[in-house]
Amino acid sequence: MNNATTQPRPLLESDLFRQVKLTALQMLRIIEDPASTDEDRSRACSTIRDSLQIAESPKQYGRTLGAPQFQGPGQGQITTLDTARLETQEANFWEKVRQLMKAKAVTQMQLADRMATTQPAVSQMLNRRCRPQRATILSLATALDVEPQALWPQLDVTDILDNVAAFHQEQAMSEPEAEAIRNTLKREPANAPAASLPKRKR
Amino acid sequence: MLYYCYLLSDNSQVIVRRFVVSCRNVRMTLAASEDLRMLLPRMESRAEVERHALKLQFWSRADLQAMDLPVAAIPNTAFFTATLADSFGLQCDLRFIIWEDVLYPPDGQIWILGFCRDNEISSDSTLTIVHQRKAIIEESDTLTRTWFSD
Known about the structure:
Strand content of chain A: under 5%
Helix content of chain B: 25-40%
CATH class of the domain at 80-156 in chain A: Mainly Alpha
Number of strands of chain A: 1
Mean pLDDT of chain B: 79
CATH superfamily of the domain at 80-156 in chain A: lambda repressor-like DNA-binding domains
Oligomer: heterodimer
Mean pLDDT of chain A: 77
Low-confidence stretches of chain B: 1-5, 16-21
Number of strands of chain B: 8
């Protein structure tokens, strides 16, 4: 084995810190700019961290998707178990689509027409078994005339999560809603006597 | 490379040259991972986004879609954006900024440089950040080549 390929050359400080310095300066400008958004400031901080990372190990910069790798302390790890579960979901979905196409004698061309897309796109999705977007599931369900949940059973769960998120993201109460609550609070309590309940038989 | 021949309605033919790309690596910067973690704290949601992003391995510059993922170029830059309409409990869609490293052998590779909400207005600062992340990747390549070459 050639040592020259494994042993790094002596590091030049100028090489090492040129990019780090440049990045840090530009990112600090963004962080200090009062017009910057919080998101941009957060991104600028991550970018400075990235520039320090290349100084440490340039060969291992970034990570390849689909390959389970450690993401860093506190960032969680997408395990092979997660990946296997997602792959199973996708495989089941496309298998169901294939079965329905066969049962209903629908060709790829017909499916593409119904989904307003092209046949190569349908073919690619069927063969690659990629993860479908929500719109794709709904569109395929319509095209094959089945309920979306029949193709993707987890769709309801996603709906619930979306609704919960929508509820929590509501920032302010609208004026009609506030007025309705005020009116309810102002209303006198009803003085009607409680209905007499029939006596329990012993 | 593949050549498609289209027959138009007036019987004229158009030959379209199209680059066929093999399955390429889709890589994500650490900063992009951090962006995603800020947007989607649930690991399961992040795993799903990564599965969607894997569609980019079959995408080429000429395509406006990577399977069911719409891709658009950012004008006057080398970057593209892909929009993911699965909301994952967010109020809006997710957009990721990608860059194709064409020099990477043999067919290049796709880098995901950052994530943002689709309704977020891209400012000059956002573009500066993305440019800088691209520069980090290039610098990392240069350093690797310089240090580990014979």
